[in-house]
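Quick look at the format.
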Amino acid sequence: MIAAAGCAASDEATQEILVFGPFRLDPSQRRIERNGSTLQLSGRAFDLLLALVRQAGNVVSKTDLIAMTWPGTGIEENTLRVHIAALRKALGDSHGGDRYLSTVSGQGYCFVAAVSRAEQVQAAPTNLAGAHNLPARLRQMVGREQAIKDISERLTAQRFVTVVGPGGIGKTTVAVSAGHALLANFAGHVHFVSLGETGNAAAVPAIVASSLGLQARSNDPTSSLTTFLRDRRMLLILDCCEPVIEAVAVLADRLYQAAPELHILATSRELLRVEGEFTHRLQPLPAPPEKTFLTAADALAYPSVRLFVERATAAGGEFVLTDANASDVGSLCRRLDGIPLAIELTAAHVGAYGTRAMIQLLDQHLNLLWEGRRTALPRHRTLRATIEWSYNLLSEPERVVLCRLSVFVGGMTLDAARSIASDTEDDDAILAIIDGLAAKSMLALNTGSQPPRYRLADSTRAYAQEKLAASGDAAAISRRHACYFLDLLEKVGGKPGRDFAAVAEEFGNVRAALNWCFSDQGDRGAGVALAAAAIPLFFKLSLLAECELWVTRAIETLDETEGSLRQGLLLHTALGAARMFTGQLDEFGANHLKRALELTEKIGDIPGQIRLIDQLHLMQLFVGRFDEALRTAKRGEDVALAGNDFLAAARMRVLLSISCQYLGKFAASRSYVEAALLHPGLDGVVPSGLTLEYPKRAQITLARVLWLQGYPDQAAQMVRRAIADVIAENHPVMLCRALPWAFDVFFWNGDMEDCEGHIDRFIVEAQRHNLAILQMVGEAMKGITLLARNETAAGLAMLRGAIEKLQSRSFGAVAGLRMPLAEALAAAGHGDEALDTIDQAIAHARHCNFMMDMPDMLRVRAEALMRKSHPDLLQAELNLVQALDVARDQGALGYELRVAIALAKLWQRGGRRQEAYDMLAPVYQRFTEGFQRRGLATARGLLAELRPPANCGTFRRTEAAATRP
């Protein structure tokens, strides 16, 4: 031992001993020993070594080292390099042996060996409370409080816990924090041993012994360790065990059995699998679920988002979490699998790129090279280093299987994994490898799903895909993957009931397979078959725009791949239907439907014909060909009856009922729908396969007729139940199909609150799924509800905008939406504009025979005439009389009451009270229900004003009879 010339401060009070490899460094005595023998160092070299060892694992800059070792002097870096070289020589630091010092180019130096702190043998027991060698805990930890509490409690009760999880999940951080939390429980006797840089399994006992300050007296100090620990109460933390897992398992098992007061906390990417071991699998930080709209406050409820914000802010950028970017941040955290290291590395760059650009970068290719903190261990500097660390610990068969599994997107079942991973290996070997990958945290297993699903973290998957591409096997594995999911979809499609919800979780894999099939390296024939087989899944998930993309590619490829007739039928059908709902009401889409119908007739597929007739009927309604739609529905009924398919015939009668409503034939409409509802299989059933139907379509159709014929209470009750049933299906397209057809009943009854809450969801879903026409209809409905709440300016703007967009898409029923617009304009005092608007609606309705709303249109025209700058009361009266005649001819008592009220008010205004009473009273008296509703209440009040005294008793008796249950 020599006393160092440099004057570093004495540290005798703490009795600190620093241990690394065969060395013990005593700062208070300024002494360093190798295997018990004093090592001769100069004072400056000792100070350098002490400074580096105390910051082991961290890069210490050259400037800081000079300031600590030569304070107040102006020496140059060359002097520092000379002393570092001498220190390396004294320690025996070489490329062929143990490494202690690392030069970080352009930055400084880092002490890379594992360092532990041990109490001096001579230290008094009263000083042992401060003998721990734990690294400093993080100043702030996000989302791990419960994990630390659970680990601490389990460790106290059970003595042996292994924290397991993938790289970057935060195992070391949690273990260190648990150690700090338990310091008092162990009177400070908590010892931390890092094994991450240990490549030699035989050295594990010596490293643990050295960390405890024991002198190695043999090649295997295990006996000395057990003797030393036998009667001591202590917590031993064995960190990063996976490089030497077998040796650690043997040592831990022996120590656990021999030392009853010893508690062991291990961290590893796989279990030690020894007696007494309890597992704590460290989960990713919770992230927001998919397709969730978040405010900033909502997002901060998730620990992954809080960590992201903390690291992004600490990086020195100008990032601020706002309502505008909260959903993007949530998406980033979810895409990063809630892995803290991945979140930290990504958040550090958000200031430079922005959240939206970061999502695009992740979509294109997960950046595995982003650098983290300079002070981090080398394996945690980048995502690539973290994953490569684990990858290099795998056996060659495990690496091969991991790379093959990288072809999966969003997870896989065990059956899928075996099918794609297997090659020449037998099934038992593949199962063992998959099980091993899960045990080593390279694969995550979700046992909560049925069947259980495996998943690679996105970062691991990106790394493994690079390895797969480099191996030359990517094309073969991608073909195998595509064929597996084609076979799966065809099996589901061939089963009775065809429940494609069962394979909804596989959509990411289906999309990936389609991408490969239609790529330059892909298999177009498999792509055509896969696109056709996936159509019901696209419709089940309401992904119609994407469906159009893939079926278009498949149709373009049909001739060159000799696709089958049935595939062509499915593809043409899907393209026509998808285009219709995405707002493309053109001959191109109609021609695809007609082509598909020709193919169904050619092969005698009656269910296929029925589905296509359903879609053609809807297309014709959308474009305003109402007479043609009636003929199409009649054709469908004939086809169904000819094939003795009575359920299909009932479905076609619903279409006939709908067509008759548009044409103003309400008695026929009711007859058709009631006949359809007699079929027991119709109620609430949606046919399997590609369909645009929705539950309760017949009930909503009947509810509309009931209101029009004067039964508002029955209509309201029926439509509320129907919409509740549709919402329970949790299917966006079904909701977007059903709500507009039901909306009129709510509107006619003045029950806007009953459906107003659904409209906002309707618009969001229609926009999300690119259902352009239905989105515009939803915006029109929203405008009408705003007008009903007297929010005139906002309502007029929204309704006008929706009508203009629908008119530009040639939407046929736009005349019905012009009517509430004209009525609102008239009520707001814009009589001239209201008249122009309703005249356009009436002209369009007459042109396409849209007679459903004609009585109300004529009533609104009369209102507009009365509110013109120069009112025309005579023409208004003529329009109301005409409207009354049309309503009576149609049997539309609901509309008749509206018109009669308006005409009675006009006659009352002209002093014709008796005529007004005699006209309105019989209309009112024909109602048997709904007397508390706005229309009938208005009529009752008006009749009370108009009623001659002689008629009071008769009217009261009539009303009382009408209101009796």
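Next, a different chain entirely:
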Amino acid sequence: MGRSIWAAALLGISSLVHAQSSSSANAADGLSVTSAPVTASPTVGTATVNGTATTYSVQFTVPASADVGPNVLPNIKDPSARQAQTLCPGYTASDVQRTENGLTATLNLAGSACNVYGTDIETLALAVDIQSAHRLRVSIQPAYLDNSNRSQYILPDNLIHLPEQGVVQSDTQDVDLQFSWSNDPTFYFTVLRKSTGDVLIDTRGSVLVYENQFIEFVSQLPESYNLYGMGEQIHGFRLGNNYTTTFYAADAGDPIDGNIYGVHPTYLETRYFETDAETGERSLVSTEDAVANGTYESASHGVYVRNAHAMEALLLPSNITWRALGGSIDLYVFDGPTQDAVTKQYQLGAIGLPAMQQYWTFGFHQCRWGYKNWTELEDVVNTYRDFNIPLETVWTDIDYMFQYRDFTNDQNTYPYPAGQAFMERLHANGQHYVPIVDSAIYIPNPNNASDAYSVYTDGNDSGVFLNNPDGTQYIGEVWPGYTVFPDWHTENASSWWTRSMQQHHDQIPWDGIWIDMSEVSSFCVGSCGTHNLSLNPVHPSFGLPGEAGSVVYGYPEGYNLTNATEAATASSLALAQASSASAASPPRTATTPYFSSAVTPGVRNVNQPPYVINHIQGDLAVHAVSPNATHHDGVEEYDVHNLFGHQILNATYQALLSVIPDKRPFIIGRSTFAGSGRWAGHWGGDNASLFAYMYFSISQALSFGLFGIPMFGVDTCGFNGNSDEELCNRWMQLSAFFPFYRNHNVLSAISQEAYVWESVAEASRTAMTIRYSLLPYMYTLFYYATTTGSTVMRALAWEFPNDPTLAAVDSQFLLGPALLVAPVLGQGLDSVGVVFPGVGAQGEVWYDWYSQMAMDAQPGENVSIPAPLGHIPVFIRGGYVLPQQEALYTTTESRNSSWSLLAALSSAGTATGQVYIDDGASVVQESTLLVDFTVGNGSLWASARGTYEDTNALANVTILGVASEPTSVTLNGQTITGAEYNSTSKVLSIKGLQSATSSGAWAQDWVLSWA
């Protein structure tokens, strides 16, 4: 959903993190907000909850100071910060013992403890294990004689999957990885690729630092390295060698280059090599020095750091420096040697494969924060149909709730009877509905008997909420007011969550769930609701979009050129609003002293750890549950903050299996961790209505493919600010080629549904026609993603791994192996430069989607392609057969329509393809069908495996790149009369095959021949 950027922008988080504050992050003390209150205009209303009429009013606005933490300076930005590499002694290995698949050793501190950002741990345990034919593990953690003296939190298997170790596989000896170590001058280790001698992990020249609140290890990297992943952030696809990526889940909107919602401490590195033709010498090639159509080869490997603590990774010109605030070094290296292999090894062996989605989820989705009632929602559905723009699913943001309380409907605006009737009409039309569910639970006002909230009461009785260190309930603040937070470490939490969902689904039979605010977010520092519940419900400390002082004025770039008068007015009003806000709350200055936490030997300071990571919100407790909030098993939030989103997705997945039995759960979540793709998809969060965010959406999607979450999309047309016709036109077309396709925007901004502008409506219909016709292709890609770990959206560098000039390309992408998408990503442009990879020596052929003609391009050439507004360039790769069905209004209609095949011939006249078919919904399939297509020597063969019965006939076959007009066309030896050949485009079009395939296109194997 995303309103978090308003919390950040209107609270001025970017400046407040550098401000000293008297508010405490100590949740045990609570934070009294009753002094000097800022009152809001009371919001009064009535509603019926659980059959009881309730009168409510927002009587208090939480002051902005409630969400201000100490002014902390990240260590990487502090020139006087102590450098662990120069101050700490490192370790020495001893008692080295060989094991069946590796070794173990003891690491002892090699000198006096430095205690630079914590207390040095004197003795560590090293374990190295070849776990499979493609995976090596290096584990370093404190050595304990028994479990009684454990102080370091080590991530358990029940929270995050621990890849199995000590398993002897028949091909383990074939692993292309080798571990080496030395004590010269202190312990270091390397991981090499045996086949080439390349060093993949190299800690030489550095020391290992291991303290109770600070871990640091350094790995050398080659010059100008190509490194990808390391989420979640908004950044270019290739990360570069002057960047710090931070791993701390943050409700911070979508700042460029800052840490945001999820944590994925994993990367792909690709190295390019050139072999001298005369000497045979192999040398590393910088992508900057590579030339088009050169002769190169590449090798990729992957690294996963299994640690859920707050971390950062400094990508420096010569190394990557990892720093963590706790836990262990649990390092996994995957040998690849291709991106495809690395990604599969990571998912299959370490984090798990992504969940298969229901077929309907690949349709188009519409949402906004601000749909006021069922009537308005149904009007949106009907208007889409009036404009003949396909709409599969409609969503509601927090508007539907009673006072923003989970699993309730406001009976004045979203009453259950009207909703049930709407659901019946929606489902009868083959359409769907998804509501939002937030991660915090309202805690009732104890002085108001009518403020009862059964979801809280049930959870409280079941003991499922987080506590303060003193055992009292931790009470933060989110949309409904003062709130509590589910503790997913309790055994009753999942069953309570399931009951809550079931009770709501009994009233409104929704089809999926949208999980938000799951970092987990809180709008105040500490347990601010303690002693203040009599004020509930309260208003957040920032204005909601549209309220006085928080009116949405912004438009995307270039709006002043196309709508000068309106742009000038908006700019003037925005400046006046900003000036007023600045006068009311003067900005903090850089002269405000920074808070620094001293090291106390043997003591953990979780609220103010001595090392300060480069966190976008500064203090760890700002806009989040405080680090010392305590789980029922005694674990502090400090140790597991990054896992809340992961765990709520797991709980939601299990709940949906119960609430909607036998159907694949459809869940879109905001905060994710390594492995969250097993349960949910993800959207890119609170982006802005700017072309820059449209561009970055491609990098986001490609990165989440690496993370094993292929069901990804962004808020199309932008969430924050006002979109405009040109931006929405371009973006609706781009997102049509993303797996998750949804338009969504902020409360109070102008409407941006696809029908608002006629040109956007037409552009959307054009792009959706392509998308819906290719749903069988996309669904098949997902089948392989969920069974093998392959990617759906692909970088050009992945499909063409031996071309270093493609290493940083993130302005165009591939959907699967066969479809190249090259969107316009800037304002006022009417053409786009397109690179056609593989042409030249590799002999690749690319066909224009619209003309179906082969493109004329040279290696490395940036071809200027006309792209007037409403046109998105799309190209088909020669050598592939694309299965298609009719592009109709809903996915149900489309998958019950006739089939077509589009075969794009390679330069050798060949092509292959597949289509996977099942019932599109069930968790367990009783029967499936996999159809293979092969083209060669003037024939197209189709043969199927499986027992699923698809009775839709084959209507058309289109073959691109046929050199000359055939004299005959036959299907299983019978002459076909409906064949046409275009000598200009070189396209053979065969229509009217329904009668010949009336029992179903794949009911029997067939061969289509032309000669």
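The CA atoms of residues 439 and 518 lie 5 Å apart.

See the schema section for token definitions.
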